[in-house]
Amino acid sequence: MSNLKRIGIVLAVVAVVAAVAGSFKGSDVMDRAIILGMGVDLSDDGGVVLTCEVVSPGNGTEQVGTFSKIVSVVGETINTAIQNVAEVTGKEASLGQSVVLVLGQEYYEKVDFSDLTEYFINHHSFKESAVICCCEGDAKSLFNSGNALTQSMSIAISTALLDQAEKIAVPNNSLLQYARSQNELDRTGFLNRIKFVPSENTDSSLPDKQMGYIGYREICIFRANRYVTTLSEQQVKGLSLFLPDVYGETFVSFEDIVTRTVQVTDKKVDLKPDGGGGFIIDLDITVRYGRTDSEEVSGPITAKNNTEIPQKVLDDVTGQARYVAEQYLSAQVEYNFDLLDFHEMYRRKEGSSNALATKPMQDFPVRLSVKINES
Amino acid sequence: MKISFDKLQKLWSGQDDFRLRELTCGIPLHVVCLDTMCDDAKVSAFVLQPLAYMTVSNLKEVEKKLAVGTGVRRPPNLYSAIEDFTNGYTLLFDDKDDCISVDTRTVIGRSIAEPPTSMVMRGPREGFVEDLKVNITLLRKRLKTPNLKIINITVGKYTNTAVAVCYIDGIADTGVVNDAVQRLQSVKVDGVLDSSYLARYLDVQRTFLFRRVGCTEKPDIAVGKMLEGRLTVIVDGSPMVLTLPYLFVEDMQSPGDYYENSVMTALSRMLRFISVIASVLLPSLYVCLQVYNYQIIPLRFLITVLNASEAIPFSPLTEMAMVLIIFDILREANLRMPSAVGISLSLVGAIVLGDAAVQAGLLGAPAVMIGALSGIGLFTLPDNTLILSLLRLAVTFIGGVMGLFGVIISALIIVVYLASMQEYKTPFLAPFTPDIPRDRQDALMQRPVPSMKKRPKSIPNKNADRRD
Amino acid sequence: MKDRVNIDQLALLYLLLIMGGKFLTLPSLLAGDVGHDSWLSVAFAFVWDGVCLCFLLWAIRINDRSRLDISGILDKSLTKPISKLIMCIFFVIFILRINILLSDCYKMFSVTFDVSTNWIVYILPVILLTFFAVYRGFNAIARTGQLLFGLILIAVVALLVSPLTETDFGELLPIGEAGWDKIMLASFTRSFWFSDYIFMYFVLDGIQIKKHVFSPILISFAIGAILSILLNAIFVALFGYLAPDFDMAMSKIGVFSAASTTNGRWDWLTLSVWLISVFIKVVVFAFCAYKCIEKIVGGNFVKFNWAAAATISVTLLLPMFVSTDTLLDTVIKWGVIPFTLVQYLLPLCMPLLTKTAQRKTEVQSEQS
Question: Do C261 and A184 touch (CB under 8 A)?
């Protein structure tokens, strides 16, 4: 084959590629409104108010930092609301980079939002691993208080719930876990309830600037995407005691003038039959001294050797842990929800059935033991 | 054709440098030489002075009595007589059109120096020169064995260029040698000015892209390759010596590799490999990620990109194509300029074009950075830089048009193309595919020299054991 | 010879073929059939595959003496018409498989990667790639597989690592909830996606055996099977009731690969690396379809045959007229019986057929 022929073939290929170039429709990133996070509220006429944090690039000279703006749109359903974003921003909405979805208080308390969950779980680019949570008050004002933070509101919420929550022992879940909890077995699950907590302005250069942080110590319970109840901080602490992958609960013990803080480092949760037809929860927790520098400023200097944790502290921990655990368990029976995979345990043995889905929650006695982390 | 003094005289009549002396030393002798190709001192010392005291009855006697000349021979026909004559030999004719030629060639050419294309930190600094004889000397100096065989061929109708095929008997595969020699002998061309002319003829498959014949300017590398079973082709007038068969991996091996620590070598080879793959794919990924799959880009980086390209009036593809083409233009201009101008040219390129374009909002800073990075990365494979730069442009274009789909397909086509190439019983992508475990000792990784006990299997050879 | 392939290359190519294509729509289809027991269906399908593969490898070893090609064996041991019939069935299987693979990929590109285009423009580059590779010979394809397999395997493993840590395999309990008969039936009705070894029939004459035949291929079979079963298990355990709705298993499973939500979807890059194996599978099957035409026509394509290539290209337009779902519900549902004949019955008979053909060839050569 002569070189000329080969060049001819290459040219033909290039021509074909050029000809098909028009047939490929992509979505240029410049033509998309990249949504970082969304908040959903109830509108006056029963539709939704969607508040989005949209990336808004600065000018060419400033090339660092996050530039975002808050946009609110109204729609009959979530679908139409997202379409309406294009109207406000002039660009088509893109959910692929969204990290958080916040439900406003009025919205989640009054509405069955199954269609919203379904919309996002079936959305092709919205990530199933994104954070979903609800908030105190309406989501719109939560997003609009973002100016008080040094970073984007959406990223702040997602880092708070994903990275920090586990360290201070608050469970959290992704959209996927939440959606599954609302559709499987007893159809109950939870969402973290966040709020913007204003704090004192410490920046003397900007005296008018509002400051604050994201609080997230409460949890709301939902059944089939309908609001059930809100757990108090104590109950949340009890819940996290039972969750094997959440660590960091702290307990405080006072003895004379010495304050000792201990932290849970390891735990074993075992739900097993008690022999008489009921169940009992075996909870073994391991603690060590909390690693906070200022924990013993007021008292005499004591060695921070874990093996020297006095029995009094362990007794205190046992008492406090038992209290919060029972607080949680009683709420679980009262409102009949299951965050401890009680139904799942049955399913693994017997398979799923209608009888299992309607099985009410029962109260479990807790056998609690506290050990010292000796490592 | 029969040797005839008259014919020779006729062919060169009117040429100023044609010099003829008529002598009589027993018999009448015509002594002819080309003034421009001969060394006057040699002519007088090796031919004229001995003849002055000689009385002979025929030319055979002259051949025997010319004891001072090192190269005295009897050309079999007119063609070889003319070849000798044009090469600077002095011819002696008697009345009966009998002829002998005496080597009186002049030595003009540059001296042996370090080749500019392959400088090394450590290692020999000698480089090949344009003179065939010197080049063979350089090889012989390193291979003191009767097994170094040299086959001489003349190629080119007008240039009559001397070509030497060198190989080590007992290592090189006879089939490959015969194949290459046959190919060279069948070359029909008017002139050969450089070895690269012959490289085209030695490429059996007439490969469209990629270099298929290796070339080196350093005798130590040439000898190293010959010891691995390759043969070298030296062309008179060219300091570039061809080596056959050629593997893709050779482009990743730098001359200095063998004189450095093998761990360092492995590291730098990996770096070369990664940088080349990145260079070819990075611009296209940058474009297609922007046009189609920006979800892949980490959020913070995406925001930076958005900030940088918000004001750019071009589409990402056009922007990147411009950067790449500007880079190629700069490289081309730099290559053609004298080195003194070259420096100012690169300054102009870097500062004025790059920085000003970004300042003016014509090009985005990330695009310029990625274009430059990929351009520099290509230079880690010096043999294939140009072709890879072309491929990069093509893949970028396809990526911009078709997204990741196009990038995947075009990368696959390139790999299939590379994998299918095989010449002189040697697969181009060996030892990666087909996988030859033994040869991986000197591919991406390099084993220390003492533990490389076998010759590479991918190059056909007669004796696999290096120590034997 | 440009269709030559050695056992190592064959083994690696087989591994790529097992991994390519199985992770697109199959997991969600199986999850729809048998729920969280889908990994058991996959495991059963692989058990059948393994048995048939052993017989086929046995045949390959026997065939090493004579190096007959598939039609040579079938013509001599069965008869020419039967041989041609089998080739026709093979042709249909290959064409359907290519079409299903490509339409799944098309969906993946348009849904996940946002590249929307029309079918013809989408398959043009694929056709270009395919026939370039076929023109270059099977050896080039095998070498490509050998070169890229490491990269693809790393990509698949990287994609699996993060979801693996997120997965609670307790979700797969109780084992066999859907009923063992249903699970077995599912692995039979979905057998269309399995038995990737059928490509080996068409390179029988080019296989070069060094020492081992069984071990390299069985090892890659085991790796491929384990990865496929693991992926199915992870998929159903992770997505629970949602699994049947997520038709792009591979792109969904990677969502947990990104360490933090502010990282981009890096998993899509590894996903695109894995997609190479899908295209290699398309290329291999197209090569086989090309060979089928050669055997059906009865010729020997010394040069590249444009007519055969054009025929295959035209058949790739099928998804423009029939939707994938219709294809699955009609042709593949009813074709499963003839398909299983060549997928599962033929390999079992292959050693016998090869021996018979060999004996006949030897008798013929003695007579002449």
Answer: no
Chains that touch B (3 or more CB pairs under 8 A): A, C
Distance CA C288, CA C70 (A): 11
User: What three-state secondary structure class fits A267?
Assistant: strand
Q: CA torsion angle for B284, B287, B288, B294 (degrees, to 10)? A: 140
CA atoms of B357 and C132, how far apart (whole Å): 41
The span from the CA of B163 to the CA of B9, in Å, is 28
Answer whether B118 touches A (CB < 8 Å): no
Helices (H), B312-403: 316-336, 339-347, 356-359, 365-378, 385-402
> Which residue of C lies nearest to B413 if distances are taken between CA atoms?
C129
Task: Give the residue on C whose Cα is nearest the Cα of A36.
Answer: C262
Q: What is the pLDDT of residue A65?
A: 56
List Cα–Cα distances, C113 to A132, A145, B375, C110, C248, in angstroms.
Answer: 24, 34, 28, 6, 12
Pure H helices in chain A: 3-21, 78-89, 105-110, 114-122, 139-144, 153-159, 175-183, 233-242, 311-335, 342-350, 354-357
Q: Mind listing the pLDDT tens digit for each residue in C254-290?
A: 777 655 556 677 788 888 899 999 999 999 999 999 9
Residue linked to tokens 């000279």 = A61
Confidence (pLDDT) at C184: 92
- Give the closest residue to A360 by CA, choosing from A220, A183, A226, A186: A186
DSSP-derived secondary structure letter, B3: -
- Provide the chain B residues 127-156 that lie in CB contact (below 8 A) with chain A: none
Span C19-39, average pLDDT: 89
CA angle A338, A344, A348 (to 5 degrees): 165
Measured CA to CA, the distance from residue B412 to residue B428 in angstroms comes to 16
pLDDT average, residue stretch B427-453: 85
Q: Distance (Å, rounded) from C-alpha C145 to C-alpha A168?
A: 49
Q: Give chain C positions within 8 Å (CB) of A154.
A: none
Chains that touch A (3 or more CB pairs under 8 A): B, C
Q: Would the pLDDT of B446 be above 70?
A: yes
Instruction: Tell me how many residue pairs between chain A and chain C have CB atoms under 8 A apart.
Output: 75
Helix (H, G, I), strand (E, B) or coil at A55: strand
Distances, alpha carbon C135 to alpha carbons A11, B170, B210, C285, C286, in Å: 19, 37, 19, 14, 11
Domains within chain C, CATH numbers bracketed: 5-367 (1.20.1740.10)
Cα gap C175→A348, rounded to integer Å? 9
Interface residue A125 vs chain B (CB under 8 A): yes
Which residue(s) pair with A285 in the sheet?
A267, A370
Residue ranges of domains in chain B? 5-103, 132-246, 259-420
Structure tokens at B131: 């003179």
C contacts of A24 (beta carbons < 8 Å): 115-117, 121
Nearest residue to A171 via CA among A186, A192, A193? A192
Q: Please report residues of C whose CB lies closer than 8 A to that of B300.
A: 262
Determine the distance in angstroms separating the CA of C64 from the nearest CA of chain B, rounded to an integer: 20
What chain A holds in terms of domains, given with CATH numbers, is 30-231 (no CATH), 234-375 (3.30.300.210)
Of C6, C266, C279, Cβ closest to residue B408: C279
Place of tokens 């790999």: B415
| CA of A286 vs chain C CAs: smallest distance (Å) | 23
ipTM of the complex: 0.93
